[in-house]
Amino acid sequence: MQKALVSIAVAASLGLGATAAQAAILDDVKAKGYVQCGVTGGVPGFSAPDSNNVWTGLEVDFCRAMAAAIFKDADAVRYTSLTSQERFTALSAGEIDVLSRTTTWTMSRDTQLGISFVGTMFYDGQGFMVRADDGIESALDLSGAAICIESGTTTELNAADYFAANGLEFNTVVFVDQDEVVKAYEDGRCDVYTTDSSALAAERSKFADPDAHIILPEIISKEPLGPVVRAGDTQWFNLARWTYFALLEAEELGVSSANVDEMLGSDNPAIKRLLGVEGEFGVPLGVENDWAYQIVKLVGNYAESYEKHVGPDTPIGLERGLNALWRDGGIQYSPPIR
User: CA–CA distance from 135 to each of 56, 130, 146 (Å)?
Assistant: First the structure.
């Protein structure tokens, strides 16, 4: 979720980055028969195994969409659980084909790690969670608080900037991974848990009494979260990027998993191009022309995935907000397929 500065140093020290990027990733993926996808250890709504040990979530759906486009089989995915410290090294080393793990798009990552951000699957920001019975209503009331933070991220830097700017004191309690952070907060080892607001909502949904915890109103950073691929393979990058765009374009055109077969007969030229009825838009991506049809048929459009995993009617309960389409007051937008 947040910015692994440590991973940047590790990747640089290993000589990884653009030089390690592999060409023809799509050929390798087709040969082995599945997409190897890097995910979190388990953030409900984004990427987590269910009771049957089946991975689900908004970010998992991106991996499934890529598999649908390539194999016409959304289940042709294998998942690698990665910590914040491990994710970029695993991607640079070729241990995974794509990273879809609540990763913030930053300049340093984009320019120094030999990786390419595909797009923003979820517009997020860093927030704070406290116990409701503490009576705290604002982050400005947190002076002197002990704050649980995951190491290897810039969450601590964001918090330090925020507290310094507002003349507040705080103490950090740092742990290696998010599960340790959450447990420490639940055990009362700190007063505050801070990370991306979506992750706060996701973790709160797992608490025995979610209503005993509140997320404060302040959002102190920009956290555009999106999938990442190794740099240097334009075809693989384009396939990943247009998989993301196809999810959005389908929502905008009103094409869903429920009506996609009916939509094959649409007279709308944009729908014809999206579904491969007209044009040869799969060719430059290295897949068949019905690639987007397969995505929508087997996974759904962006709205379907959002509402299923993190929307207001889920335990996560997140409104679309900035993640709504541009025409609905948000900033999600796909270039035209033509």
Answer: 35, 9, 16
Q: What residues are paired with 77 via a beta bridge?
A: 35
Nearest to 79 by CA among 41, 122, 26: 41
Q: Give the strand pairing for 192-196 and 145-150.
A: parallel
pLDDT > 90 fraction of the chain, expressed in percent and rounded: 80
CB 165 within 8 A of CB 30: no
Apex 245 CA angle, 306 and 326, nearest 5:
70
283, amino acid identity: V
Query: 3-class secondary structure for 27-41?
Result: HHHHHHCCEEEEECC
Question: CB atoms < 10 A from the CB of 304, how many?
Answer: 19
Using one digit for the tens of pLDDT, what is the confidence trace for 24-78?
999 999 999 999 999 998 889 999 998 899 999 999 999 999 999 999 999 999 9
Report the candidate in 84, 133, 85, 88 with the shortest Cα–Cα distance to residue 115.
88
Task: List Cβ<8 Å contacts ≥24 apart for 259-262.
Answer: 260/293, 260/296, 260/297, 261/297
Contact 189, 146 (CB under 8 A): yes
CA pair distance 210, 208, nearest whole angstrom: 6
Are 195 and 2 a contacting pair, CB within 8 Å?
yes
Sheet hosting strand 115-117, strand order edge to edge: 77-81, 35-39, 98-99, 228-230, 115-117
User: The pTM is what?
Assistant: 0.87
- Token pair 């579904």 in the structure block, residue: 275
d(CA 182, CA 59): 21
pLDDT at 222: 92
Count of positions (residues) in the chain: 338
